[in-house]
Write the structure tokens for this entry.
Amino acid sequence: MNDYIIINSKDNVAVALRDFKKGESINGVELLEDLPRAHKMALVDIKNGQDIIKYGYPIGHATSDIKAGMHVHTNNTKTNLNDLFNYEYHPHFNHVETIKKDATVDVYPRKSGEYGIRNELWIVQTVGCVSGIAHLIIDEFKKRYDTSKIDGIYTFNHPFGCSQMGDDHTMTRTILQDMVKHPNAGGVLVLGLGCENNQVSVFKETLGNYDEDRTRFMILQESDNEIEDGVKLLKELYDNMKDDKRVTKPISVLRVGLKCGGSDGMSGITANPLLGAFSDYMALNGGTTVLGEVPEMFGAEQILMARAKDEKTFEKTVNLINDFKAYFKNHNQVIYENPSPGNKKGGITTLEDKSLGCTQKSGHSLVCDVLKMGERITSNGLNLISTPGNDLVATTTLGAAGCQMVLFTTGRGTPFGGFIPTVKVSSNTALYNHKPEWIDFNAGALVGEKTMDELLAMFIDYICDVASGRKQTNNEKNNFREISIFKDGVML
């Protein structure tokens, strides 16, 4: 097994796959200092101002002369990026292949034509101050009724729905409305207080098409006994959904979000390429994947733009990138200082380093559509969507777009989960062994254990098991189910 990797033949750095000591050698070059796992070593002398090449692309430039064998990191490397670009459409489409594997999932058909991978009963709160009552209603319902015929009853706390103005108010309402119509919910009780900005009456009027048999509305201030009334409405919903049955469908009915968090230097080598291979498999088999985290496209965005299926999709991608850059600038924030302390400790040096690794999750297929935050999926294949890098906001936005699950790669580890099943994929085996109660699948097996095709086949089987209800993700087992809604403006 190799204990280092040179990702691309153009690279002038190698990545360590284990901890190295000064005096050891990588690719015939003696290390001049200790090198932690997942960090980079110069393969050749790199002069001050010369580009550092990884993944075949510049990830920054040297800020001092770097000798072959030296550690290449934040102390001697700086980003090449600056604020805004004028982009041009130069399409470059890849020949994409994947393994030959038929896959099916057992899913719940919905009246909307979508398919759920869970049959859950939800309380969606229009405003944060009703969360305590929502939990009391659920607790009382569970005391009175056997709920074993469905996949669970949940509510999702959030602090919004009141004291919001303009776009923030609209975004909160839109994301919650998207959740009401999510196929993983067999029934939804919309619970409001009565005096909030996010009025239940307007919420209902602007909801659009929804299944009236599977949706109920309640305003607490209008109820003489909110617990009794809430339990009654849940019982109506439960009776309407408890006999729902799974049907077998091709894997193409899945809509899968792609996300990373707590990345390390291995994320762009193992876990993210595995998701990329899965994304290509889905695209070539009629399925759908959705990539968010726009700030983590900065520096690699032109690779995605070149894969836009047509000029209209290219323009939507340009707007996706530039709108997020403008958001940073409007708040007087530096656009290109994105890697977190954990990222840097894990071996990621610059935003280009992070972005080139992050976008590996998209594979090599065409970009078929680009969604604004709050918009729902309408096109199969690879989609891009506007989200920040924040784990909770991005995962919530992916779910609201219609993804039935999110695949979440990590090199550092995180326990959180979204309101939909959140599959944690580790970039390294050490993390998988250290946090088995967090991590669902180990992409670290790509280092010396499995080929990409072998691991992809195993991963597809695992995803089908999760989608079909044969397996739960760790966030489901731990009952870690969180939402967070994007906020940009003032609060009253």
The longest strand covers residues 185-192. The two ends are 59 Å apart (CA to CA). The longest helix spans residues 311-330.
